[in-house]
């Protein structure tokens, strides 16, 4: 059971059961009614930062649908609260819910810089672009407090190792000094996520993210400093932001993005329950329509785990979206392309300095 009261500042409006746990924690309806009458919150909405101590930090990416070979995540869970986030399901591996827990219980890997340094110094390691983050945002609000991402960038610079960054937070500009140094050696590419030009849509879908104007400014500032930016216009959610694809592409191109990419939303695992619950509260007038459009993109289901199709979708709705993306590239990105990062410098810097003598 759950409260009819909206939980402000969060995407998910409930905690879904963790499929790996034997017992289910549930707040009873009579307790929720008591809280409503007394004007009290049934549980704390405060974000908790929980330190964890992993043995490794760099992950091999096996999915053929993801354009990366290696990723690393300084944080697990993400306070941005994006309702559609595919990473929600991974929070269950840590014993938490993919719902509110994902946004309120942030696992912090303070040892990430040391683990990264040990990995890329290993004698058997051959430089490949490592992406921060393949799972949760490395510039989420926790980064302002812990500065783990910045320390990792310092490691990449020290060892002249290529790094990719995916974020939707303007906090990345704090590290412009390091990014400029990395770019001087062609060692960095940045992906900025922009899902709408409407602040109302942004606040509803992604309650604790940077504003659209801040994201466009971030693209512009990075591009003015010659740091290559790929705009992630993803996910495209039919019935919510699909009509914005062309103006989105134009906006990021006008601000200097060198390329863009899209995916079509898919709602695997617990995300299906979380998203369905959310949209019936946030957009009750079009909830059924949006869910049906998503199903149309995935063979009649909101879930899709098929390699090659799960991010692209299929059917008429998906085809229309990809046709718009092709048109956007012809109009706004005809002469543009993404960077190829330098993998050749790292071997000379494995001991932390240039090998002048051999």
UniProtKB/TrEMBL annotation:
Concerning SUPFAM superfamilies, the annotation shows:
Radical SAM enzymes
**Which keywords, in A-to-Z order, does the entry hold?**
Iron, Iron-sulfur, Metal-binding
Name the InterPro entries for this protein.
Elp3/MiaA/NifB-like_rSAM (IPR006638), MJ0683-like (IPR040086), rSAM (IPR007197), rSAM_sf (IPR058240)
Q: Which domain of life is it from?
A: Bacteria
Ranges for domain Radical SAM core come to: 61-301
Q: Name one GO molecular function term.
A: catalytic activity
What Pfam families does the database record attribute to this sequence? Radical_SAM (PF04055)
What name appears for this protein in its UniProt entry? Radical SAM protein
Q: Which organism is it from?
A: Flagellimonas aquimarina
């Amino acid at each position: 059971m759950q409260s009819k009261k909206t939980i402000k500042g969060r995407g998910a409006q409930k905690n879904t059961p963790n499929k790996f746990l034997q017992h289910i924690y549930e707040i009873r309806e009579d307790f929720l009614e008591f809280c409503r009458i007394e004007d009290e919150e049934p549980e704390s909405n405060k974000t908790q930062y929980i330190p964890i101590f992993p043995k490794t930090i760099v992950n091999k990416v096996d999915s053929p649908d993801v354009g990366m070979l290696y990723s690393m995540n300084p944080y697990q869970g993400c306070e941005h609260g994006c309702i559609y986030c595919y990473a929600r399901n991974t929070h269950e591996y840590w014993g938490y819910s993919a719902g509110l827990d994902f946004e309120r219980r942030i696992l912090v890997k303070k040892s990430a810089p040391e683990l990264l340094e040990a990995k890329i110094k290993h004698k058997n390691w051959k430089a490949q672009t490592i992406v921060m983050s393949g799972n949760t945002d490395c510039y989420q609000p926790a980064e302002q407090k812990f500065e783990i991402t910045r320390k990792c960038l310092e490691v990449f610079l020290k060892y002249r190792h290529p790094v990719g960054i995916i974020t939707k937070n303007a906090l990345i500009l704090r590290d412009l000094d390091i990014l400029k140094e990395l770019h001087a050696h062609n060692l960095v590419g940045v992906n900025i996520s922009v899902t709408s030009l409407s602040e109302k849509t942004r606040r509803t879908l992604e309650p604790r993210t940077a504003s659209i104007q801040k994201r466009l400014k971030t693209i512009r500032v990075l591009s003015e400093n010659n740091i290559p930016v790929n705009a992630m216009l993803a996910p495209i959610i039919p019935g919510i932001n699909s009509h914005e694809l062309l103006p989105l592409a134009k906006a990021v191109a006008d601000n200097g993005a060198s390329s863009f990419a899209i995916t079509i939303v898919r709602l695997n695992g617990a995300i299906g329950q979380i998203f369905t619950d959310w949209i019936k509260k946030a957009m009750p007038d079009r909830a059924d329509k949006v869910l049906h459009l998503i199903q149309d993109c995935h063979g009649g289901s909101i879930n899709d785990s098929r390699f090659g199709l799960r991010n692209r979708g299929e059917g008429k709705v998906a085809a229309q979206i990809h046709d718009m993306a092709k048109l956007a590239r012809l109009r706004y990105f005809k002469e543009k392309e993404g960077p190829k990062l330098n993998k050749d410098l790292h071997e000379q810097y494995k001991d932390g300095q240039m090998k002048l003598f051999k």
